Give the backbone structure.
Amino acid sequence: MSQVHIKSNVNGDDIEFLCEPEETLLEVLRDRLHLTGSKEGCGTGDCGACSITMDNKLVCSCLVLGVEANNSKINTIEGMADGDKLHPLQQKFLDHAALQCGICTPGILVAAKALLEKNPSPNETEVRYWLAGNLCRCTGYDKIIRAVMDAAEEMRG
């Protein structure tokens, strides 16, 4: 099959790339665009390690074809910080030691950011519910939830 020409906006930059019709968006991000922050944990949309936002919707990039990204706005973990200044969520994850091996961290951060953009004042139950699609084998989640709640409070001012 021939490659497809795609135009997208990724982390604020207009880009163009070629991809095979059967390539997942995760494969495109990692292998073609060299944005390796999103991880493949399961390849079936069950773990959330590959979470990104596409047109302001949280999606598992392993379940989206690269060709579906045409004319889309995509945000990955690489676009979360502002240069050298960490996003408040990233800083709170460090402050609360809310990460260990790091495989799940990018997806959880992207998902948490999507939550706080939709609901800047979530309660603990809402945070837990929103992040239920992101699996972590190391932390036990408590530090993650505390970091998200603390970041939400800081971001509200």
The longest helix spans residues 142-156.
